[in-house]
């Protein structure tokens, strides 16, 4: 289910992405401590943000399934700001409900250490 979510996210396939998300109880915690609750709100949020990013690309480096309910994904998102491509390395924690669909998404940015 996580792999399908990522495929749909990269393709901006909002209906396909919605099918991977639990109908009830979805919580998305973002890297800025922002919270989006509910399947419809989350899909609308992604649609609004990602379709407005110039040249948005998503590249998955690794998917690690801890068990049937918990997965970590390391990925990079890239998009242009004022004509310059910016790259955002991330780690996303996915939790799945009893039916296997995604019920919680927690997004963390990776940052270089102090020099």
Automatic annotation (TrEMBL):
Xref: Gene3D superfamilies: 3.10.450.50
Domain SnoaL-like: start-end pairs: 2-104
Q: Which domain of life is it from?
A: Bacteria
- What is the name listed in the Swiss-Prot or TrEMBL entry for this protein? SnoaL-like domain-containing protein
Protein source organism: Mycobacterium paraseoulense
